[in-house]
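Data card: per-record layout.
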Amino acid sequence: MKYFGQQQGNMHKQLSKMIYNPKNIDEAKQLFLDMHTLLHLAMMTQTPKNELDDLLSDLKNEEYAIMPTKQDETIAWVLWHTARIEDLTMGVLVGQDKQIFNEEWQRKMKVKIKDTGNALNDDEIMELSHQVDIPALLEYRNVVGRKTQQIVCQLKAEDMHRPVSLEGIQQIKEEGGVTSQDDSMWLLDYWGNKDVAGLLLMPASRHLIMHFNACSKWKEHIRTHNKFFRQ
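The structure for this 231-residue chain is written out next.
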C-alpha cells in the first residue's frame, strides 16, 4: 500500500527541533516553506510536480466524492477541510489579517457551508462532496497556500512564541469559521492554546500530511474495490 508524505514527515521532525531557536529562524522558515510547497500542488509555486500532484492528477470527478468505508470521509471533504483550516489559522491567527474565503469564493466553489466541516455527518459530507466545484476548490487552496508562504516569509524569531490572540479566535467564530456544534467549537480552544510555531507545526503542515496519507489509502481502495460505503 502506498503511503503519502514520508519526506514531508522527516522534514516536519527536523522543523520541530529548530523552530523555537532564534538562531535558526531563517533555516526553520525555509524548511517550512520547502515542506509546505510539497503539501500543495506544484502550480501554487510553479515548482516541479510533486507527490500531491501524483495523488490528485488522475482522479476522476466521481472519485473525489467516494467514501470508501464507514470510517472514512471523501477526498473532496479533505481538500475543503484542510484549505479552510489553513486559511483560518494562517490568515487570521498567524497573519493577524482577514481570511481569503468570502461570499465570492463560496459562490465560485458552489458550497453552502463556511466552516471547516469538522461537524458534518456522513450525509452532509456527501452533499458537500457532490456540490463542490473541484477546480475552484483547488484554486482556492492554491491562493490560501500562497498567502501562507507570504506570511511565513515575514515572520521574525520572536513571532514563533507569540500566543494566539483572543481577537483572532473571536474573529473566526463571528465569521462562521466554526459552528456552534461541539465537534466544531473545540477547534477554538485547541488553536487558542497554541503559539505561532505550534500552528506552523500542526494545521499548516502535519495536519496536511495526515489527511493526504489517508487520501492515498482511499485512492488505492477506490481503484481496487467495486463496492463502497457511500458514493
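Known properties of this structure: The chain has a mean pLDDT of 97. Residues 118 and 184 are 5 Å apart (CA to CA).

See the next section for split statistics.
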